[in-house]
């Protein structure tokens, strides 16, 4: 087939082909034309064209996290690649495999007053797992390095990588190229998955100890969930879980902040473990971090394939670079050492008491608040959907409700930014077209990432709900900014933008609900409307923090 006549481009395309890298997300430009021409002409690749590089990068992140495979981002030279940085940092902390393929001008033209040139070499610094900058040369001189580079892309710990390619003009030349039909690379399963065993000395430390497992953000790991359920059958073991871990089970304590709300300084000791084991990625709950800093366990064990971010309580005693399911499998083999205390009962009893108090609150309260929206959504969310949560207050509100079986919770908690939540949800929906996706966002986050609505074709299997309180509601909830005289202008950032008009400008159909309908009725009818893709629900900015305070007070005192 005819593709770019540049040997370096041919080799990179070939490496993508032979390593099974299928999805290529382009943003329009000229310097990256050789790549656009070459990837587009090979039917193996699925190409996507998105104008805004920042939206494109989060979109690619959504595909990568859904399909669990590397995705390429390709852009022109100059400031274009800088717009990838927010999503790249998110993928770095979330261990998602993105390959930034940035086209560049020849090295001799950098910093010589030429247009669209910046210093692109090693552009992303420590947030990139590997960076490599290459010029146009005979491809035989970089074949070995290219092979190793692409092998590392799919090797754990996963993360973003950057390949910067200096290209001379002309850029649009073609030549016939025959790709070598290589045999599929055999994966060394022993190298990917090595067995893990705790020795007798390590196992002995768990005898007669209160043990708490704290689950951070993760994927739907069935093996890990099975081992955790078995491990938590020991009466001295309790598992604390967040919706974003995708590990929920009725035997776990699944709403951390809701339960912590009723633990007092006088009772804290009863809920403090001897050993705390942390697994997975980011923890949403700020309260649990504070609680264990103020009430430190005797030992903190962190299990993660990447050491960054594991010192959650500013005192990490042991770190294991291993697969979490293997670690708990090793413990479960020796469960006879563990079952001597009844620590779990303290947490589960309190959790059950709090859960039983929930219905009474929502029967007695009927306010136009964020909390009422989430309660309504919780009651009618479609079965077996993927629920994408915006950051700040949205993800925190949802953690107050028990996880719903067969609903997968997603959120950009690597860096916890609001800048690409919509784009990520769009990418996920594109990558799994047979599944219903629901995205819930605040108005600030939605407006900030409104170029996500520019993506075409926009997935029909994505429903979006925006909670519009005309500002950043999180700043009226957290301590500090809520008491500041600068709250409205600098923190909450009050605005008068019309969310519906913005969406309609991109061709998105907004659901036209009746004013006298309650939140639950509006959401039900919105899900039933096959054409509408956005529902805007207005809430009372002043009443929101008051309602949340009443909620926590009710749970504690009821």
Short description, anyone?
With 558 residues, the protein is of the alpha/beta class.
Walk me through what this model shows.
By secondary structure, this protein is an alpha/beta fold. It has helices at 7-18, 33-40, 53-67, 85-94, 143-153, 189-192, 200-204, 222-231, 256-260, 268-271, 286-294, 324-332, 343-364, 370-380, 393-398, 421-431, 443-448, 487-491, 499-505, 519-528, 543-557, and strands at residues 2-4, 23-26, 46-49, 71-75, 98-104, 130-135, 161-166, 174-176, 211-215, 237-241, 275-279, 299-303, 318-320, 386-389, 408-410, 437-442, 462-468, 534-538. Strands 3-2-4-5-7-6 form a 6-stranded parallel beta sheet, with helices on both faces. The protein has a 5-stranded parallel beta sheet with strand order 10-9-11-12-13. Helix 3 runs parallel beside helix 4 (85-94), helix 3 crosses helix 16 (421-431) and helix 8 (222-231) packs parallel to helix 12 (324-332). The longest helix is centred in the middle third of the chain and has 22 residues, at 343-364. The protein is globular, with a radius of gyration of 25 Å.
Average predicted confidence as pLDDT = 91
Please provide the count of β strands.
18
| Helical proportion, percent range | 25-40%
Unreliable residue runs: 186-192
Compute the number of structural domains. Answer: 3
The chain-level structural class is: alpha/beta
Shape: globular
CATH homologous superfamily grouping of the largest domain: Thiamin diphosphate (ThDP)-binding fold, Pyr/PP domains
Reported for the largest beta sheet, the result is: 6 strands, parallel
CATH level-1 class of the largest domain:
Alpha Beta
What's the alpha carbon Rg, rounded to whole Å?
25 Å
- In the sheet with the most strands, the strands line up as 3-2-4-5-7-6
**Named CATH architecture of the largest domain:** 3-Layer(aba) Sandwich
- The CATH topology of the largest domain turns out to be Rossmann fold
């Amino acid at each position: 087939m005819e593709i770019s006549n540049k040997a370096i481009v041919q080799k990179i395309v070939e490496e993508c082909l032979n390593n099974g890298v299928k999805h290529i997300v382009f943003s329009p430009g000229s310097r990256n034309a050789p790549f656009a021409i070459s990837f587009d002409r090979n039917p193996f690749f699925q190409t996507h064209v998105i104008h805004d590089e920042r939206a494109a990068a989060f979109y690619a992140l959504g595909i990568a996290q859904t399909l669990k495979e590397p995705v390429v981002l390709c852009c022109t030279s100059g400031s274009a690649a800088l717009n990838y940085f927010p999503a790249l940092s998110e993928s770095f902390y979330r261990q998602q495999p993105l390959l930034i393929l940035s086209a560049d001008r020849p090295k001799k033209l950098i910093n010589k007053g030429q247009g669209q040139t910046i210093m692109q070499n090693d552009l992303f610094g420590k947030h990139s797992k590997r960076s490599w900058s290459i010029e146009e040369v005979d491809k035989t001189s970089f074949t070995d390095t290219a092979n190793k580079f692409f092998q590392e892309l799919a090797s754990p710990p996963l993360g973003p990588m950057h390949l910067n390619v200096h290209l001379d003009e002309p850029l649009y030349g073609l030549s016939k190229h025959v790709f070598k039909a290589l045999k599929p690379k055999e994966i060394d399963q022993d190298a990917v998955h090595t067995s893990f065993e705790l020795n007798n000395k390590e196992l002995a430390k768990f005898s007669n100890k209160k043990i708490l497992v704290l689950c951070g953000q993760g994927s739907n790991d069935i093996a890990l969930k099975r081992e955790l359920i078995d491990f938590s059958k020991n009466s001295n073991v309790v598992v604390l879980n967040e919706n974003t871990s995708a590990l929920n089970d009725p035997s776990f304590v699944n709403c951390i902040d809701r339960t912590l709300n009723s633990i007092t300084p006088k009772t804290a000791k009863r809920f403090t473990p001897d050993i705390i084991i942390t697994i997975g990625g980011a923890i949403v709950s700020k309260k649990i971090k504070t609680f264990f800093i103020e009430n430190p366990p005797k030992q903190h064990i962190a299990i993660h394939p990447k050491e960054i971010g594991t010192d959650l309580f500013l005192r990490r005693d042991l770190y294991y670079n291993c697969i979490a399911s293997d670690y708990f499998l090793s413990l479960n083999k020796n469960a006879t050492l563990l079952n001597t205390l009844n620590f779990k009962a303290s947490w589960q009893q309190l959790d059950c008491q709090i859960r039983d108090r929930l219905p009474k609150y929502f029967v007695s309260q009927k306010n136009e608040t964020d909390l009422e929206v989430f309660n309504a959504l919780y009651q009618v969310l479609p079965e077996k959907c993927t629920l994408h949560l915006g950051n700040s207050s949205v993800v925190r509100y949802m953690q107050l409700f028990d996880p719903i079986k067969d609903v997968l919770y997603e959120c950009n908690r690597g860096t916890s930014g609001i800048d690409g939540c919509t784009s990520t949800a769009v990418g996920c929906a594109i990558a799994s077209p047979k599944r219903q996706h629901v995205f819930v966002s605040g108005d600030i986050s939605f407006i900030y990432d409104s170029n996500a609505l520019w993506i075409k074709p926009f997935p029909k299997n994505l429903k979006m709900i925006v909670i519009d309180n005309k500002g950043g509601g999180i700043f009226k909830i957290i301590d500090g900014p809520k008491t500041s005289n600068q709250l409205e202008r600098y923190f909450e950032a009050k605005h008068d933008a019309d969310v519906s008009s913005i969406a309609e400008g991109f061709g998105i159909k907004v659901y036209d609900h009746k004013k006298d309908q309650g939140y639950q009725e509006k959401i039900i009818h919105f899900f039933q409307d096959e054409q509408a893709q956005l529902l805007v629900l207005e809430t009372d900015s002043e009443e929101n923090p008051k309602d949340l305070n009443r909620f926590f007070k009710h749970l504690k005192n009821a």
